[in-house]
């Protein structure tokens, strides 16, 4: 379905309200600038040091640093941790302060700087077909830099080894260098999957994009580690000592057997994560991916404590995020209501506390224990945070085994139970566990005056949240830039149209539109209870920052105590054992020091939300608003055209909007299958490349998630 705006701007705003954000004090702006400069300096220095590490100059600096810090309390381990892992942790800590100072003024800053349309690296698609999918200019730069680093590092090490006479020794040294390069890649591997990480919020990368970066880094890392092991195996096989070397577990030096175990765990995760295997058997992919614990622990045993410090920073941030997600998911969340649509789609409304914030392009991970205690599935949020402080809604398309069982559970409820009281009694037992919400730190859909939303099937879900969010903001006079919104919705049958009524436009603006669609669905009532936990990295940034700082300090204290009272007095020298102790210190600092902060955070949550929970209990139940169906009245603000049997003509649509809206920035947000992403990205690129001075610039943003 193609829903087009009329000639006049679809949405009107109050000029005296929007865009006049509250001016921040000078010291806040100055502190933000200073923090931003310091973080960039630290990151560029750290990245440059890693990139140039294979060079003789940086290698000599590294050896001098090791010699200078060898006699200190923390020894070589502490010096390497400070050099390779310390910068990323320091950036995360400074980033927490920066986000606190930034607040919600980003929209206002963008309004001041967006008078003229311009291209942006993150939204300009460069590659639209190929193994990487749709790749923006910024992502392409990242791919080129990583590729250049791997090629440069391997070439530099090869030149150093070229003087060797023995081919076997050259093979083993080549394997050693590939392992070192893979270890540096591991430093980045776990950063994208720390869903609530301050780093992702700092650079405003949502987890659906970050997951793709994790996939790319995973392929690169496992390729390097596989070649690392293969080169050694070939060399050992030629010399006839393969079995002995594979089973070797040295105390001083690299322990081979833990490396074999780590590589086997990594290979199993790698093979089952390939698209063909993952789509056929998601459960196999999900369960084997839990072997990351084996992979990391035996990697630490393989290389020892000080070499493990090359990648420890990213792994530590992931451990912090994973423990926080574990604590959040322990709480069971009542499902306030469930609605079944004729098109095979479910709407679940979950209870949440008022102090848990999210934006309209958020995601959650959902587990229903009545179906499975282990399976977690990601769903896009279909409600706006302005729809209500105490609930959050998701739309679920019935496609696989898990969603099919959920649909049958909801459908059987509506058939077997007819009385409201019996429903409440029966279904108060049906609960969910939630991780999230995740997503962009800033609502970037509010930074475009002109939006084209392209959805395929259930991909309409986040755009319903966007529409509701925009309408609420206009009604309440909150910052909101969109004036024109075009929705292109590709659906197979008209059975999907009732999903539009989940927005409730008539209840927000009674005269907004003249919907005339019939709606048939089952609407169930559930007992209201306290909502999901606010213990999430994307939640309260102050508590997230305290959690990060205290856990990091706790790691330093734990390692110091271990050195003072155990390692140094007893002269522990085994590399693998010290690697095990170091990763144990990482886990202990997260559990003990981080757990203390989480406990205080939980108490704060209970104190601030107790009043809300009491209110919910007094209210008893909540009922979903029934859609108001209006007949033709007043002027149409949506002109809708339904096309069956053909794909949307994106070239015609984009050219029409470019001519109509003129020389402006147009945000194109897509949620749909890969084929639809390719078509839309290709058209955005084509329109931008042939653009003239008085035509629009199309900014491609993908909200699709492929796990």
From TrEMBL:
- Source superkingdom: Eukaryota
How does the protein's chain sit in the membrane according to the entry?
Answer: Multi-pass membrane protein
A Pfam family that this protein carries is FAD_binding_8
Q: Which GO terms describe its molecular function?
A: ferric-chelate reductase activity
Q: Which residues form a coiled coil?
A: none
Q: Does the keyword Transport apply?
A: no
- Which named protein is this? Ferric reduction oxidase 7, chloroplastic
Q: Which organism is it from?
A: Sesamum angustifolium
């Amino acid at each position: 379905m193609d829903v087009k705006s009329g000639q006049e701007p679809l949405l009107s705003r109050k000029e005296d309200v929007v865009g006049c954000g509250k001016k921040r004090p000078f010291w806040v702006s100055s502190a933000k600038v200073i923090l931003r400069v310091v973080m960039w300096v630290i990151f560029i220095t750290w990245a440059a040091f890693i990139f140039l590490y294979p060079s003789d100059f940086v290698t000599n600096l590294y050896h001098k640093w090791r010699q200078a810090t060898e006699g200190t309390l923390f020894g070589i381990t502490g010096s390497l941790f400070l050099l390779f892992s310390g910068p990323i942790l320091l950036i995360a800590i400074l980033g927490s302060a920066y986000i606190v100072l930034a607040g919600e003024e980003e929209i206002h800053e963008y309004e001041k700087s967006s008078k003229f349309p311009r291209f942006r690296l993150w939204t300009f698609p460069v590659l639209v077909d190929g193994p990487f999918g749709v790749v923006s200019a910024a992502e392409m730069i990242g791919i080129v830099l990583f590729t250049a680093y791997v090629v440069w590092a391997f070439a530099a090490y090869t030149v150093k080894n070229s003087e060797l006479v023995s081919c076997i020794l050259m093979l083993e040294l080549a394997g050693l260098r590939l392992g070192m390069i893979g270890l540096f890649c591991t430093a980045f591997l776990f950063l994208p999957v720390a869903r609530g990480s301050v780093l992702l919020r700092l650079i405003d990368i949502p987890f659906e994009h970050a997951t793709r970066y994790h996939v790319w880094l995973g392929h690169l890392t496992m390729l390097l580690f596989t070649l690392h092991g293969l080169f050694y195996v070939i060399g050992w096989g030629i010399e006839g000592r393969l079995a002995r070397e594979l089973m070797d577990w040295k105390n001083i030096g690299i322990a081979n057997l833990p490396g074999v175990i780590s590589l086997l765990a990594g290979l199993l995760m790698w093979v089952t994560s390939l698209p063909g295997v993952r789509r056929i058997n998601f459960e196999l992919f999900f369960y084997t991916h839990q072997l990351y614990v084996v992979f990391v622990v035996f990697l630490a045993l393989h290389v020892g404590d000080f070499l493990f410090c090359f990648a420890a920073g990213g792994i530590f941030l992931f451990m912090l995020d994973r423990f926080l997600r574990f604590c959040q998911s322990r709480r069971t969340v009542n499902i306030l209501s469930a609605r079944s649509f004729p098109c095979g789609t479910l709407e679940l409304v979950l209870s949440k506390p008022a102090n848990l914030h999210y934006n309209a392009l958020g995601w959650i991970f959902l587990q229903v224990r009545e179906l499975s205690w282990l399976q977690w599935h990601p769903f896009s949020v279909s409600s706006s945070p302005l729809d209500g402080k105490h609930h959050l809604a998701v739309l679920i398309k019935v496609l696989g085994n898990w969603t099919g069982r959920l649909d049958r559970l909801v459908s059987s409820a509506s058939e077997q139970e007819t009385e409201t009281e019996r429903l409440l009694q029966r279904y108060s037992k049906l609960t969910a566990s939630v991780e999230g919400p995740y997503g962009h730190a800033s609502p970037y859909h509010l930074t475009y005056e002109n939006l084209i939303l392209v959805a395929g099937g259930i991909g309409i879900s986040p755009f319903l949240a966007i529409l509701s969010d925009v309408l609420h903001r206009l009604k309440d006079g909150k910052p909101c830039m969109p004036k024109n919104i075009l929705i292109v919705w590709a659906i197979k049958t008209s059975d999907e149209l009732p999903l539009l009524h989940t927005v409730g436009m008539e209840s927000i603006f009674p005269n907004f539109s003249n919907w005339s669609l019939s709606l048939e669905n089952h609407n169930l009532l559930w007992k209201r209870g306290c909502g999901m936990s606010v213990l999430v990295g994307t939640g309260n940034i102050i508590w997230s920052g305290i959690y990060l700082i205290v856990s990091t300090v706790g790691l330093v204290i734990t390692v110091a105590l271990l050195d003072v009272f155990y390692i140094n007095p007893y002269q522990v020298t085994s590399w693998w054992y010290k690697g095990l102790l170091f990763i144990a210190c990482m886990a202990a600092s997260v559990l003990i020091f981080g757990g203390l902060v989480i406990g205080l955070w939980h108490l704060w949550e209970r104190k601030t939300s107790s009043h809300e929970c009491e209110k919910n209990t007094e209210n008893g139940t909540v009922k979903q608003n029934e859609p108001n169906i209006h007949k033709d009245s007043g002027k149409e603000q949506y002109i809708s055209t339904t096309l069956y049997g053909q794909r949307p003509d994106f070239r015609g649509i984009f050219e029409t909007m470019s001519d109509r809206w003129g020389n402006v920035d147009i945000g194109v947000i897509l949620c749909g299958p890969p084929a639809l992403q390719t078509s839309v990205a290709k058209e955005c690129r084509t329109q931008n490349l042939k653009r003239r001075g008085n035509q629009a610039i199309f900014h491609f943003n993908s909200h699709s998630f492929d796990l």
